[in-house]
């Protein structure tokens, strides 16, 4: 398991590369050009800027999250071909700087959705919260206005540029069913995967978060059967998944341990975090510790270990603790604690392989 840490870029993240470097076992950053609109080709000079900064901090940049998919691709519009061409060019450029995994998602309009970014957990910490009934009643346009007023802290999928087009997008998706999405993702994969293979980059689709349709928009990356169907759409080691325990875990019917065993060779990247699910379907993100939530974190790490997982792993959303002011879900402290918990589990399962202790010369 190779540990990495998400970094949103200078001026866009409260966490610094030097801080990331000091978290035990972290070797690289998970990055993206957050100011490039979905569908555009990534400019090489901006890619090189990130590479230079990471090099300086002694961190690699092998994992990109995300190269976002233009809505026209998800909608299957004729204009998708030009965006797919741009995507291919971006893949080729990323290969030049040593990228090995590209994480992306195929969720219509929105990326992850929560109703409260700072819900108290009872110990004074706060975390991202999803109140099921609110999504049904939520005034989308009020929400859009709130985010527009705070552009420094946009969330993935909620960028002001996209929010302005919300009504238009909702209209475009009218009549688009899950089966249409399946067809459109297959079209995308058939175009992209051969290019990714040629450049030795593994594509890793992220599950939908939450893993069910929202606002009447279809969602397909929701559970084990659908992931199985997805992987068969284009059967190649370069067509893989990002196993996100928190996204899949928001539906307690999802058996993530079983997914690890079934899909092990198609998982180049994992997001590991815990979530506490309530009976009414609400959920809150907790510390990574197994006992604090509903997700079998230790079972998942054990399953990864049993399958000799050699892919990348990052802690995912953390709580906001110790008065840290940070991007919602992306503070330093709780994610660093999460990493140490994940290493604790991993190393315990590796017991026996670390018994040799040597003293080195200075
Ligand atoms: C949330 C992330 C997602 C993820 C995308 C992948 O924090 O896990 O936003 O990056 O869904 O494209």
UniProtKB/TrEMBL annotation:
GO MF annotations, alphabetized: ferrous iron binding; manganese ion binding; mannonate dehydratase activity
EC assignment: 4.2.1.8
Cofactor(s) listed in the protein's UniProt record: Fe(2+); Mn(2+)
Enzymatic class: lyase
UniProt keyword annotation of Iron present: yes
Record flagged with keyword Nucleus: no
One of the GO BP terms on file: D-glucuronate catabolic process
Domain of life: Bacteria
Keyword annotations from UniProtKB, A to Z: Iron, Lyase, Manganese
Catalytic activity: D-mannonate = 2-dehydro-3-deoxy-D-gluconate + H2O
Pathway: Carbohydrate metabolism; pentose and glucuronate interconversion
Family: Belongs to the mannonate dehydratase family.
HAMAP family to which the protein is assigned, alphabetical: UxuA
Function per UniProt: Catalyzes the dehydration of D-mannonate.
Listed name of the protein: Mannonate dehydratase
Native source species: Paenibacillus sedimenti
């Amino acid at each position: 398991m190779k540990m990495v840490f998400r970094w949103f870029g200078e001026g866009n993240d409260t966490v610094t590369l030097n801080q990331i470097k000091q978290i035990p076992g972290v070797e690289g950053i998970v990055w993206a050009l957050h100011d490039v609109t979905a569908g555009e080709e990534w400019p090489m000079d901006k890619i090189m800027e990130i590479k230079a900064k990471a090099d300086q901090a002694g961190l690699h940049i092998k994992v990109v999250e995300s190269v976002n998919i233009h809505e026209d691709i998800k909608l299957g519009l004729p204009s998708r071909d030009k965006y797919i061409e741009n995507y291919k060019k971006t893949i080729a450029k990323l290969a030049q700087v040593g990228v090995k995994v590209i994480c992306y998602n195929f969720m219509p309009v929105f990326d992850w959705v929560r109703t409260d970014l700072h819900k108290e957990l009872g110990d004074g910490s706060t975390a991202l919260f999803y109140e099921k009934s609110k999504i049904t009643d939520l005034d989308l346009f009020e929400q859009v206005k709130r985010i527009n007023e705070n552009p420094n802290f946009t969330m993935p999928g909620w960028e002001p540029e996209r929010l302005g087009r919300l009504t238009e997008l909702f209209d475009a998706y009218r009549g688009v069913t899950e089966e249409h999405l399946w067809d459109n993702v297959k079209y995308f994969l058939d175009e992209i995967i051969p290019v990714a293979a040629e450049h030795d980059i593994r594509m890793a689709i992220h599950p939908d978060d939450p893993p069910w349709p929202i606002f009447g928009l279809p969602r397909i990356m929701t559970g084990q059967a659908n992931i199985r169907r997805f992987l068969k759409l284009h059967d190649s080691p370069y067509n893989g998944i990002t196993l996100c325990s928190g996204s899949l875990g928001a539906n307690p019917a999802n058996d993530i341990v079983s997914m690890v065993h079934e899909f092990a060779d198609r998982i180049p990247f994992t997001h590991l975090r815990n979530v506490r699910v309530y009976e009414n379907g609400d959920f809150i993100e907790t510390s990574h510790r197994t006992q604090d939530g509903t997700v079998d974190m230790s079972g998942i790490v054990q399953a990864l270990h049993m399958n000799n997982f050699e892919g990348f792993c990052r802690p995912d959303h953390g709580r906001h603790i110790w008065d840290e002011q940070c991007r919602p879900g992306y503070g330093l402290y709780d994610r660093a604690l999460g990493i140490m918990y994940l290493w604790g589990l991993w190393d315990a399962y590796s017991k026996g392989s670390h018994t040799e202790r040597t003293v080195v010369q200075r």
